[in-house]
Amino acid sequence: MTTSPDDDALAWAGDEKHETPTSRVKRVEIMSPAPRSSVPAPLLITYGILAGLYLIYTAGWVITILRSTTTLTDLLAEIMFQLGEFLAIASPAVWFAAVLLLTRGRKPIIRLLLLLAGLVATIPWPFLLGV
User: Fold this and answer.
1) Which of 1, 11, 37, 63 could form a Cys-Cys staple with 18, CB 3.0–4.6 A?
2) pLDDT at position 130
3) CA–CA distance, 77 with 71 (Å, rounded to integer)
4) For the whole prediction, is pTM greater than 0.85?
């Protein structure tokens, strides 16, 4: 005799007559996650502070671009100027992401030195000088 889904809902786990494969409890083993290399908390805090500085640099470039009043008459010059503005805005984020991705297996001091070098390389000088 076959049972309908309605009958399965009324069957108890100990009832042998109506026991179906779906009413049996399957045993599932919980697998432990693979061990990860842990990053020390002070290093994570340092990365967070540097990420905040890069975000401030991006905001500085955006403010500088919005204050700019440069107008060009040549179409190619205008396109190149706008490309330069976009790259200036994106440079802090691109540098930060590139350093994190490209120094994945290296020592943390190398990553920190490259992030500090990026702070010097992507500084928004026009914003700081008030130009």
Assistant:
1) 11
2) 80
3) 10
4) no
